[in-house]
Automatic annotation (TrEMBL), chain A:
Ranges where the Thioesterase domain occurs: 61-135
Gene Ontology MF annotations: 1,4-dihydroxy-2-naphthoyl-CoA thioesterase activity
Name the record gives this protein: Phenylacetic acid degradation protein
Residues spanning the signal sequence: none
Superkingdom of the organism of origin: Bacteria
Automatic annotation (TrEMBL), chain B:
Gene3D superfamilies to which the protein is assigned, alphabetical: Hotdog Thioesterase
Keyword Mitochondrion: no
Organism: Sphingomonas hengshuiensis
Top-level taxon in the UniProt lineage: Bacteria
Protein name per Swiss-Prot or TrEMBL: Phenylacetic acid degradation protein
C-alpha cells in the first residue's frame, strides 16, 4: 500500500468553472456578469453586480427580475454538481421564485443555491437571493433538476 | 423596446390584438450550455411576455404599474439554435392582483419549450 497522499476526488470546482467561462464566449451568465463567490459540499453562492443593462424599470433603475431568476437557476445548478461530486448534463424541470422585495438600486445581488436532496435522476434545490444582508432576502426559490443519464 | 434588460435579451415585438408576441433571437448573450438556451433567459423572456400582455390589458383601464410577486416555471424542452417566441395571457385582472400565464415556443405554438404562471401586484 502506498502512503503517498491520494489526490482528492475530482469533484467539481465552481471557481475553476466560472474562471474558464470568462475566457470563453461567456453565454448568458457571462453577459449578466455572474461571478463566483463561494461554495460548500451542497451549496454555491454567485454574485450579480448591478449594471445599467440589467434594469427592468428605467424610471426607478431597479433590476429586472429575469437576471435574478437566471442567477438563482445557475447557483442551484452548480449546487447540484457539487452534491453529485462532478458535472452532469442536466436540465431545470421547474423553478418557483417568490420576489420578496425589489433589489436596491446599485447593490450587487448575491444568490445562494442549495441542493438539499439528490436522487438518481432528480435533484431538489432551494435558495435565496439578497443584496447585502442575508437576513433581509429579496427572493426565495425552490425547484428541481433532472439528469437524463442519472446523477450516479 | 426601451427596457435595458429586454435589449440585452435582443427582444423584438410582434403586435397582437390581445397580447403581443415577443421574439428572442438565439445569440451568445442567451446561451446556456453549448447549443442550448439558458433557462434564465427563457424565464426572463416569459416574464417580459407576461408583463407586456398585462400592460396591454391595463391600457384599456387607464394603465398602471405592475410588480412581480412570484413565478412558477416549467421547462419542457431544451431551447435550440433558432428564434424563440413567447406570449402572455392574462387569466384574471383584478383590482390589486393579476394572474398571468405565458408560454414560449420555437417551431409550433402548441409545442412549448417552457411555460410559466405569474402573480402580479397592480398599482393603479
Amino acid at each position: 500500500m502506498s502512503d503517498s497522499a491520494t489526490p482528492a476526488a475530482p469533484g467539481f470546482d465552481p471557481r475553476w468553472f466560472f474562471q474558464l467561462r470568462k475566457q470563453g464566449g461567456g453565454g448568458h451568465g457571462g453577459r449578466l456578469g455572474l461571478g463566483y463567490r463561494g461554495h460548500g459540499a451542497d451549496w454555491c453562492e454567485l454574485d450579480l453586480p448591478y449594471a445599467a443593462d440589467l434594469i427592468g424599470d428605467p424610471d426607478s433603475g431597479v433590476l429586472a427580475s429575469g437576471p435574478i431568476l437566471a442567477t438563482m437557476d445557475m447557483a442551484a445548478s452548480v449546487s447540484v454538481w457539487l452534491k453529485a461530486g462532478g458535472f452532469r448534463n442536466h436540465a431545470t424541470l421547474d423553478l418557483r421564485i417568490d420576489y420578496l422585495r425589489p433589489a436596491r438600486v446599485g447593490q450587487t445581488v448575491i444568490g445562494r443555491g442549495e441542493c438539499y436532496r439528490l436522487t438518481r435522476s432528480i435533484a431538489f434545490v432551494r435558495g435565496q437571493a439578497h443584496d447585502g444582508d442575508p437576513a433581509d432576502p429579496i427572493a426565495h426559490v425552490a425547484g428541481t433538476f433532472m439528469a437524463v443519464e442519472g446523477y450516479w | 423596446m426601451s427596457i435595458p434588460y429586454a435589449e440585452l435579451l435582443g427582444l423584438s415585438v410582434e403586435p397582437g390584438e390581445v397580447a403581443p408576441t415577443l421574439v428572442m433571437p438565439f445569440a451568445d448573450a442567451v446561451l446556456g450550455r453549448p447549443g442550448f438556451l439558458h433557462g434564465g433567459a427563457i424565464g426572463g423572456l416569459l416574464e417580459m411576455a407576461a408583463v407586456a400582455a398585462l400592460h396591454q390589458a391595463l391600457e384599456s383601464e387607464g394603465g398602471g404599474k405592475v410588480k412581480p410577486i412570484n413565478l412558477t416555471l416549467d421547462y419542457m424542452r431544451g431551447g435550440r439554435d433558432k428564434p424563440t417566441r413567447a406570449r402572455g395571457t392574462v387569466t384574471r385582472l383584478g383590482k390589486r392582483v393579476a394572474n398571468v400565464e405565458a408560454v414560449a415556443w420555437q417551431d409550433e405554438p402548441d409545442r412549448p419549450i417552457a411555460a410559466a404562471r405569474m402573480n402580479y401586484l397592480i398599482v393603479r
